[in-house]
Specification:
The structure is a single chain. This protein is of the alpha/beta class and 395 residues long. It contains 13 helices and 17 strands. The strands form 4 sheets. A 6-stranded parallel beta sheet has the order 5-6-4-1-7-8. Strand 16, helix 11 (353-360) and strand 17 form a beta-alpha-beta unit. The N and C termini lie close together (8 Å).
Length: 395
């Protein structure tokens, strides 16, 4: 990576202001899933090892839409972080201004402080530079470890870098290594697997990966629009009529590189208790039925295609994996990735639904990398520059 990281700078005696991704789910005032807190720990520990004056953490949580709302407070993160780090963690009721400045000043040497939700200010998501400058006042150096927010130019991800030296944290570095470098210079054969509900949100990633990869395997609802573009009847399946022309253009350009499912599981209702059967896609989907998962033949075809792949990138489930009858295809693909990883391939899972699918399959630690960022990982796979990353100091 050509950006400086916390390893390239001296943090001793400094007030280190870190943008973390503590956008965790809160239920009844408690953190319901601490995955994102755990993911930040290596960076936080590495900073503390350098004996800084203070470690100051900022993040957004949810969408409070620019207003103070206790439902979106970061306070519930404090006890979890204190427990994981094994030291006291203070909390400031505001992320800028007198309250925040006093909280920083009151910290003991080496103390840790969590600031209140940056999105309690409407200017944060507009990259308001006044807010950025006030945030910057709290630190001597800025670290961005919030990969999940790096695709947004906000005061706490981009604006703040204009006022302080700015470097990457270790999580950010790891994400860039896998989603950037590994996909730009892949060990071949390089296969991409794309799924999810809609083709409309995945057009750019499909085009970029068709350029870079040796093959792109399609699954999930997005396959439906390709089938419709081929003139196959799709019954009541999710099809985006407005994207059919785009699908036709992609099919024409992609040739053999784009591989579509050959069979699928159809259901007579969008319901886990629906009647189901497996059909060959070429026979079409009858009216009143919808295609909700890839079938066994497709799983076999895809596992053959992937059998010698040395790099595999996966974004989007192969079916409606939230319902058991339509989860088999997604879990089977997860198994194939685990097998390829064991055989020495580099396997990278984009965040969001594919990450939760691999977690549900219990295989998250059997693949090379599961991204912590949904939108950000998709944008990296689209080949886009992330503003929060671009703004960091070059090596
Ligand atoms: P995305 O956010 O675009 O990656 O889409 C993820 C969602 O796609 C999941 O909630 C799946 O339930 C849904 N999905 C996957 N396959 C299908 C399908 N064949 N029909 C409808 N929804 C699907």
């Amino acid at each position: 990576m050509n950006k400086k990281t916390i390893r390239d700078v001296d943090l001793k005696g400094k007030r280190v202001l870190v943008r973390v991704d503590f956008n965790v789910p809160i239920q009844n005032g408690e953190v319901a899933d601490d995955t994102r807190i755990v993911a930040a720990l290596p960076t936080l520990r590495a900073i503390l090892d350098q004996k800084p004056r203070a470690l100051i953490l900022m993040s957004h949580l949810g969408r409070p839409k620019g207003e103070r709302n206790p439902e979106f407070s970061l306070k519930p993160v404090v006890p979890i972080l204190a427990e994981k780090l094994g030291i006291d963690v203070a909390f400031a009721d505001d992320c800028i201004g007198e309250v925040a400045e006093k909280a920083v000043a009151d910290l003991p040497d080496g103390g840790v402080l969590v600031l209140e939700n940056t999105r309690f200010y409407a200017g944060e998501t507009k990259n308001d530079l006044e807010i950025a400058e006030k945030l910057a006042k709290l630190g001597d150096i800025y670290v961005n470890d919030a990969f999940g927010s790096a695709h947004r130019a906000h005061s706490s991800t981009e604006g703040v870098t204009r006022y302080l030296p700015a470097v990457a944290g270790l999580l950010m570095e790891k994400e860039i290594e896998f989603l950037g470098n590994a996909l730009d210079n892949p060990k071949r054969p390089f296969a991409a697997i794309l799924g999810g509900a809609k083709i409309s949100g995945k057009i750019e990633v499909t085009e970029n990966l068709l350029d870079k990869a040796d093959m792109v395997l399609i699954g999930g609802g997005m396959a439906n629009t390709f089938f419709a573009a081929q003139g196959i009847a799709m019954g009541d399946s999710l099809v985006e009529a407005e994207s059919i022309d785009t699908a036709k253009a992609i099919l024409a350009k992609a040739g053999d590189k784009l591989i579509l499912p050959v069979d699928g599981v159809i259901a007579d209702a969008f319901d886990a208790a629906a009647n189901t059967k497996t059909i060959k896609v070429a026979d079409g989907v009858p009216d009143g039925w919808r295609l909700l998962d890839i079938g066994e033949e497709t799983v076999k075809l895809y596992s053959d295609k992937l059998s010698d792949a040395m790099t595999i990138a996966w974004n989007g489930p192969m079916g409606v994996f939230e319902m058991a009858p339509f989860a088999k295809g997604t879990f089977a693909v997860a198994e194939v990735l685990a097998e390829r990883t064991a055989a020495g391939a580099l396997t990278i899972i984009g965040g969001g639904d594919s990450a939760s699918a691999i977690n549900q399959a219990g295989l998250a630690d059997k693949v090379t990398h599961v991204s912590t960022g949904g939108g950000a990982s998709l944008e990296m796979m689209e080949g886009k520059v992330l503003p929060g990353l671009a703004a960091l100091n070059d090596k």
